[in-house]
Amino acid sequence: KQEVTQIPAALSVPEGENLVLNCSFTDSAIYNLQWFRQDPGKGLTSLLLIQSSQREQTSGRLNASLDKSSGRSTLYIAASQPGDSATYLCAAPNFGNEKLTFGTGTRLTIIP
Amino acid sequence: DTAVSQTPKYLVTQMGNDKSIKCEQNLGHDTMYWYKQDSKKFLKIMFSYNNKELIINETVPNRFSPKSPDKAHLNLHINSLELGDSAVYFCASSQEASYNSPLHFGNGTRLTVT
User: Fold this and answer.
1) Peptide bond connecting B8 to the previous residue in cis, omega within 30 degrees of 0
2) pLDDT value at position B65?
3) Best mutation site among B35, B43, B48, B109 for testing chain A: the one with the most A CBs within 10 Å?
């Protein structure tokens, strides 16, 4: 059974800094991994889906990496802005079925 | 032009009542889901439908009954509501199975059972 962990649970950084969010998963037999952001009172917004054949996926100031062998993925945010403040969740599939297992997220606060 | 819309946004009701949450997606996706997010923000799948057929039923009490009249709609009916049912329920959709394409979520329905 897939288990997904995100540490730390909360992170505060000054505006303009680059930062890295971490995601660990136990079952490395995954097809892909997804990163989402959740704003308060809202649903999740898909940010990046990185396939197992890729090592990195980029969208604007966001860059996600995937290392299956170590069971880790990172989300790099460049030049952080207050609008980046949100909870970021990663999700990895369970091999053999269609279920996604979500981490509990990292609540990111960008300080102006 | 909302992609995944669910109603109502808030639902406050008493124990023992029956309630429904509706979900619609206009993305043309084949697969729809119901997720439950508890007070600790843990998000867990409840049901998955592909082209109106049940794919995943994640050991949810049978008081919860999903219904998909067509592939653009997936409603959730809950009988005999209990205090522990209080949570935020999210509807989502994807073009393919969830491990192959991005998930698109609705804004959630906050259910409070008193």
Assistant:
1) yes
2) 93
3) B43
